[in-house]
Amino acid sequence: MWRSRFLDQHAHLICVGAGFRKKMPHEETLAMYICECCILSQRRIGMVGASVTAVARLKKDYSKLLKDPVPYVLAAPLHSNILEWHYVIRGAPSTPYEGGVYHGKLVFPPDFPFKPPAIYMLTPSGRFQTNTRLCLSISDFHPDTWNPAWTVSTIITGLLSFMNETAPTLGSLTSTDSEKRALAKKSREFNLKDRVFCDLFEDLANEIRTELAEERSRDAAEDAAIQEMNSSRRSGEEGDYSPLTYNIVVLAGVVIIAFAVRYVILAAQEEN
Question: Where is this region: Disordered (predicted)?
Answer without folding.
Answer: 216-239
